[in-house]
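Fill in residues.
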């Protein structure tokens, strides 16, 4: 094929995109699956094929590769975003615990309720 045009013409994407910003977070385009959830599995050592097959079968293999490639290409920014998201989650958890004690620890909360139920009732 030197100096000849190939018979098959491939459509080349300038910027294939697999991630979109929505509702204050980043998601696989057109899905409810977050960037964090896919990246977390990837960082845990799961292969892209395993992530697609076992964790997110609603995604195509191309989408999972796209998200992982984006992560690898923009690792510093994604890691910063993940740290910020974790800090936000910790803040929200703390606020919920302050306003609704036991909400985030349902087993402990249920134990406390059972103990209270066993106490003699004052009349």
């Amino acid at each position: 094929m030197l100096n000849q045009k190939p018979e098959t013409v491939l459509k080349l994407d300038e910027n294939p995109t697999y991630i979109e910003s929505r509702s204050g977070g980043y998601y696989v385009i057109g899905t409810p699956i977050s960037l964090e959830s896919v990246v977390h599995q990837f960082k845990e050592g799961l292969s892209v094929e395993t992530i697609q097959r076992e964790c997110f079968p609603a995604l195509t293999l191309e989408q999972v590769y796209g998200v992982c490639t984006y992560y690898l290409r923009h690792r510093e920014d994604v890691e910063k975003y993940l740290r910020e998201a974790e800090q936000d989650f910790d803040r929200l958890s703390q606020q919920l615990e302050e306003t609704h004690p036991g909400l985030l620890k349902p087993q402990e909360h249920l134990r406390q309720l059972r103990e209270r139920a066993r106490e003699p009732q004052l009349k």
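The two ends are 95 Å apart (CA to CA).
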